[in-house]
Automatic annotation (TrEMBL):
It catalyses: oxaloacetate + acetyl-CoA + H2O = citrate + CoA + H(+). Gene3D superfamilies: 2.20.28.60, Citrate Synthase, domain 1, Cytochrome P450-Terp, domain 2. This is Citrate synthase. Keywords: Transferase, Tricarboxylic acid cycle. Belongs to the citrate synthase family. The lineage of its organism: Bacteria, Pseudomonadati, Bacteroidota, Cytophagia, Cytophagales. GO terms for biological process: tricarboxylic acid cycle. It comes from Arcicella aurantiaca.
């Protein structure tokens, strides 16, 4: 039975269809609102506005549910490889053994980056933030890799999955004054990344299976998250029919913001500052509650999760396991736990439903894996890449129109030009 929402404006009544998703989410379809009523809606930050119907990721912010194509992230993080999850997100189903082998082999055949792209890379200063470098290098891919003549994006998808990890490690190697490493196709995706990051010509690098498994889990947990800021950016840029590379580059830039993916770097810097300041978490809880302090508890709060971020729970346990397995005693983990406990019992945070999000504990693991702080958001981007690709593919497959929001104008009304000599 069709459902409708009724809108009264003055003495007129209007009806708009209600659509229901496969998880019983409801939306009022206002496609005809302006034509019928002369009104638009306005919703700063799109807190109540759906941009699309998507079959990729379902999350329930109240119940703390997150599923990729119907599979729970708890199961995928425990049982799948990151490439399996990437395939699931991009192509819609978990791969068969043969499909997985073909996907992995295709990626391995494209891990080498055009040597001329290194000339672009060499132009960046040694202290350039890796996220700015990565977005520039991904955008530069559109100059070097024009895709196949059929117009299919398949080859560009494989190239991005294959080359982004390689390019991501270049910034780290340059910051260390070390030579970059070429990919090693005898290694799996995560081990290859770690080898490119940490191998040195002077001695063979042994990938620690605990580290590789932790990285695999982290990349899966970051792989997609429905219509977040960076994914919405990828879809919006792609809606103009800009290339996949240009769209992903834009997504990397959106992710770099400290309110979004950049928060994982901010969290560790915040925890370090608290440690340096004597570890008094109550002082920082008070600052976070004081609007005039300009301080936010980074890694806390979320636009949609209002009870807990399921990813944060998994990452917190993984942090305990990885640090124990590696024999690391990181004092900031204790500070993070104290901050979490203090905030979860404080009315300010409870009333605003502010809980640890995916970024609160992830930096502690990245640090234990030897990844430097300014590379944390790059790790987020590597994890989110298959999600961005899947969402971009879906937008194109649905032939969605170019995204172009309306506005309500609140500026000066019409006025005549006054020559400069006459202006006061
Ligand atoms: C990610 O959308 C996604 O799915 C994103 C992501 C993904 O996977 O793609 O999950 C990844 O970006 C996680 C979020 C990482 N960002 C941070 O950790 C930065 C710190 N958190 C925030 O700044 C904030 O919580 C946001 C940006 C995450 C959400 O902001 P909203 O939904 O716009 O909420 P808001 O800023 O309007 O805050 C509501 C209230 C305000 O207080 P009041 O004006 O009601 O009194 O909560 C307060 C805020 O001041 N508040 C905080 C706070 N976050 C919100 N107060 C102190 N510390 C915080 N961290």
């Amino acid at each position: 039975m069709s459902e409708f929402a009724e809108l009264s404006l003055g003495d007129k009544k209007y009806q708009f269809p209600v659509i229901t998703g496969s998880e019983d989410e409801k939306a009022i379809d206002i496609a005809k609102l302006r034509d019928e009523t002369g009104h638009i809606t306005i919703d700063s930050g799109y807190k109540n506005t759906g941009a699309t119907k998507s079959a990729i990721t379902f999350l329930d912010g109240e119940l703390g549910i997150l599923r990729y194509r119907g599979y729970s992230i708890e199961e995928l993080a425990e049982k799948a490889s990151f490439l399996e999850v990437a395939y699931l997100l991009i192509y819609g189903e978990l791969p068969t053994t043969a499909q997985y082998a073909e996907f992995e082999n295709s990626i391995k055949m494209h891990t080498i980056v055009n040597e001329d792209m290194r000339k672009i890379f060499e132009g960046f200063p040694v202290n350039a933030h890796p996220m700015g470098v990565l977005s520039a290098m991904v955008c530069a891919m559109s100059a070097f890799y024009t895709g196949d003549k059929s117009g299919s994006d398949e080859l560009n998808i494989i190239r991005l999955m294959a080359k982004m990890p390689s390019m991501a490690t270049w910034s780290y190697k340059k910051s260390q004054g070390h030579p970059v490493n070429y990919p090693n196709n005898s290694l799996d995706y995560c081990s290859n990344f770690l080898n490119m990051m940490f191998a040195l010509p002077v001695a063979p690098y042994q990938v620690n299976p605990v580290v590789s498994a932790a990285l695999n889990k982290l990349l899966i947990l970051h792989a997609d998250h429905e219509q977040n800021c960076s994914t919405s950016t990828v879809r919006l840029v792609g809606s103009s029919h800009a290339s996949l590379y240009a769209s992903i580059s834009a997504g990397i830039n959106a992710l770099s913001g400290p309110l979004h993916g950049g928060a994982n770097q901010e969290v560790i810097e915040m925890l370090e500052a608290i440690k340096e300041d004597g570890g008094d978490t109550s002082k920082y809880i008070a600052m976070a509650k004081d609007k005039n302090s300009g301080f936010r508890l980074m890694g806390f709060g979320h636009r949609v999760y209002k009870n807990f971020d399921p990813r944060a729970r998994i990452i917190k346990k993984a942090a305990d396991d990885v640090l124990a397995a590696l024999g690391i005693n990181d004092p900031v983990l204790k500070i993070a736990s104290e901050l979490e406990a203090a905030a979860l019992s404080d009315e300010y945070f409870v009333a605003r439903k502010l809980y640890p999000n995916v970024d609160f504990y992830s930096g502690i693991i990245y640090r234990a894996l030897g990844i430097p702080t300014d590379m944390f958001t790059v790790m987020f981007a590597i994890g989110r890449l298959p999600g961005w690709i899947a969402q971009w593919k879906e937008m194109k497959a649905n032939k969605e129109p170019i995204g172009r929001p309306r506005q309500v104008y609140v500026g000066a009304t019409e006025r005549a030009y006054v020559s400069m000599s006459e202006r006061a």
